[in-house]
Amino acid sequence: MKINRAVYRLFFAAFLLLFLLNCRKQTIPFDAPPVVTTHAVTADIGAWSVIMGGEVISEGGTEVTEKGVCVSTHQNPTLTDDRYPGGFGTGVIAVQVVVSPGTTYYVRAYATNAFGTAYGNQVTATIPANFPTVNTAIVLTTNSTSAIGGGRVDYDGGGAVIVRGYCWSTAHNPTVKDHKTADGSGIGFFVSTISGLSPNTIYFFRAYATNSSGTSYGREIAFILEIFKGPTITDIDGNVYHTVTIGSQTWMAENLKTTKFRNGDPVPNITEDLGMPKKLYGYSDYEHDPNYSTIYGRLYDWYVVMDTRNIAPEGWHVPSESEWTTLTDYLSNNGYGYEGSGADIAKSMASKSGWEPSEFMGTVGNDQLSNNSSGFTALPGGGRFLMTGPHTTAGFYFLRIGIEGHWWGTTIPTMYGQGGSRGIGYEGNALTGFTTIEEDGYSVRCVKD
Where does residue 271 rank: exposed (0-12), middle (13-18), buried (19+ CB within 10 A)? Predict the structure, then answer.
C-alpha cells in the first residue's frame, strides 16, 4: 500500500510538471521588428501608373506605425530613396506609383515599428517604353444612373492606339477586366458615357488606352453620383443644363455651351490663335477640340458676353459682380466654408473630380470627393489667355485645364476697366476676383432673371 501511494505521488508530480510546462505563456520578444514581404509589380497596369506593394505578415513586438514601398533605380532601396506610405498595421500594402516608361525600378516593401524598419524581398520592374500615355480628366453626373467622363491620350507609345475609354469598379485600381467603355481610337481628348451606376455608391474610375504592346491607365478618380434637385433648362442649341438654387438665386450647375445668341445669330468660332494687335471676337473650344466643350463648356470673350443679342437662354443672364457677391456672401454666412465657417468656400462650389491633386487640407484639390456641398459644380475648364513676352510668340494659348476655372461677370473690372472674372484654383480655398483682358476666353455660368 505504501508503494502504491509513492507511485501515485510520483505520477501526480510528473503530470503537474508537464501541465505547467505546456501552459507556460509563449511570448514574442518585445524588441522584434516587423515581418514583411514584397509583391510583384502589377503587370497589367501599364505605363506611367503601376501598383506596387506587399504584405505585413507580423507586426513584431509593437504596432506597425507605417508601411509602404521604397523604390529606386538602384538595388536595395531604403527609406532614404523614394518612399510611398501605404497605411499602418498588418495586412496588404498597395500603392499607386507614377513611373517612366523604359526604366527599370527596384522595389522593396517596408514596415516600421518602435524598434526599427524591416524590408521585404526585392522585386524588379521594367516599364515598357512603347505603352500609351493616358490621362484621367474628370467624371460628372448626368442623371441618377449615368455619368460622363473625360480622358486624354497624350502619346500612343509609338504604335496606334486601338481603343480608349473608361473602366470602373467599386474597388480601387479598376482595369479593362472590370466595367469599361470603348470610345474610339488614337490620341487626343475623348468623352465616355458611363451608364448603369447606382446612387450612394463610391466608384473608382480610370481612363485607359490600348495599343499593340498593351494597356495603360490614367490616375484613379473616386466618384459618387450626385442628385440634381432643380429643373433643367435648354438653350437655343438644344443643350440641356441642370440647375441649382443657392439661397435666393438659381444658377446653372454647368458651364454654357451655346454657339448662338438668343435670337439665333451664330457666335463666331475662333479656330486660330491670332496674335496682337488683331482683335478676337467669338467663342473657342479648348484647344479647338469640341470634345472638351461637351464637359467643360465653351470659352467666350468679353465682347460676346456683353453683346446685346445675349448668349444666355431666355429668362437667364450672365451674372454681375453684385450677383457673384450675393452668392459668396450666402455661402460664407451659411456654413459652406471649410469646416463650417468663413470665406473659404471653394470646396463647397467645386466639382467632386477633375482638379489636380493638392496635399493642402481645405483646398479644392484635396479630398475632392468632399467637394460641392453647395451643388454649384464649378469645373476646372482653364481658359484662353493672351501671352506676350521676349521669349513668347504673342498670341492666345489654351492653359490650366484641370488647374483653374474662370467665369465672366458683367461688372467686375478688367485690366482696362470694363469686365472681369471670378475664379477657383486647385490649391485655392476661395472664389477670387480677377482683372482680365477682354479678349481672353473664359467660361460662362448663368443665373436666373
Answer: exposed
Residue corresponding to grid cell 448663368: 446
SS3 category, 106: strand
**Domains contained in the chain, CATH given:** 35-126 (2.60.40.10), 133-223 (2.60.40.10), 233-448 (no CATH)
Identify whether 277 is preceded by a cis peptide bond (ω within 30 of 0): yes
Give 185-217 pLDDT, tens digit per residue: 999 999 999 999 999 999 999 999 999 988 988
pTM (predicted TM-score):
0.76
Give the C-alpha distances (Å, rounded to integers) separating 337 from 85, 243, 372, 405, 416.
30, 21, 11, 19, 32
Pick the closest to residue 380 from 167, 153, 207, 150 (CA basis).
Answer: 150
Q: How many CB atoms are located within 10 Å of the residue 281 CB? A: 15
Integer Cα distance of 82 and 72 in angstroms:
6
Q: Would the CA dihedral through 124, 129, 132, 134 be positive or negative?
A: positive
The answer on pLDDT for 96 being more than 80 is no
Q: Three-state SS for 147?
A: strand
pLDDT digits (tens, 9 = 90+) for 223-234: 999 989 899 999
Distance CA 181, CA 146 (A): 13
Name the DSSP letter for residue 178.
S
